[in-house]
Amino acid sequence: MPQFAEFLKSYRAHAKASLLAFDFDGTLSPIVATPDQAQLDPDLTPALQILGEQSNVAIISGRPSDFLKAQFAGIKATLIGNYGRPETLDGRALALHKTLASRARAELPDAILVEVKPSSIALHYRRAPEFASAVTEWAKNVQSDPDISVEDGKSVVEIVVGINSTKDAVLSRLARSHPAVLYAGDDNGDLAALNLLRTLPAVTCGLVVVSHQTPPALIEAADEPVTRELFRSYLHALAGVV
Predict the structure, then answer these.
(1) Backbone angle region of 84, left / alpha / beta, with phi > 0 → left and psi within -120 to 50 → alpha
(2) Please, are residues 219 and 194 in contact by the beta-carbon 8 Å criterion?
(3) Do residues 180 and 7 make contact, with C-beta atoms less than 8 angstroms apart?
(4) Is 83 left (phi over 0), alpha (psi -120 to 50) or beta?
(5) pLDDT tens-digit map of 163-220
(6) Is 137 within 8 Å of 127 (Cβ atoms)?
(7) Overall pTM surpassing 0.70 (yes/no)
(8) By the 8 A CB rule, do 132 and 46 touch?
(9) Which residues partner with 19 through β-bridges?
(10) Burial letters for 26-59: b for 16+ Cβ neighbours within 10 Å, e otherwise?
């Protein structure tokens, strides 16, 4: 796959028809200790405002849609919250979701942050990495229910209730017929999306914003592993062309 410099050439020729898709946490937002502290990087806001006007911007995130709407107010973008999963549950799925949240709080160490999302429960162990194995084992035990699936992330395990969806599935739908497609992420959940780029009949570029926690497989899958500073400069370069 072409790296960013080659992608930029195609983008210059096809800006209006191009797709720029981004993860949020750790990509457009710096890594923070707890999810409630995450905010869109203010240094990226002007570039994203320009990019939303001159091309197709999409945000594919595990965050709820309402959160994304607040973060990207004033930016023209397609916002895909909750990884494209349903944001409301009913019946057995809703009861199971509530039970799992209660069990996680009661059965896991207090140092584990239990984040309740619309159709999943995220178990964060960034502040207590010594409990990573305990969290993984707990999730494995509850996964025996056919309505549950488990996704591993960077210092987090997410337990999904009901219909699942992944970033690559969302990107596959969004990327149809675009001549140039860029995707940027930073976590295990972005691996399949980066690999999907290789299957698209388009000029593509996969970026990974690196930190000390970046999984090696993600770096290997990227066209370019980039620092946060370089990532900012790439977005500014894209925003400078029309």
Answers:
(1) left
(2) no
(3) yes
(4) left
(5) 889 999 999 999 988 999 999 999 888 999 999 999 999 999 999 999 888 889 999 9
(6) no
(7) yes
(8) no
(9) 56, 181
(10) bbbbbbeeebeebebbeebeebbbbbbebbbbbb
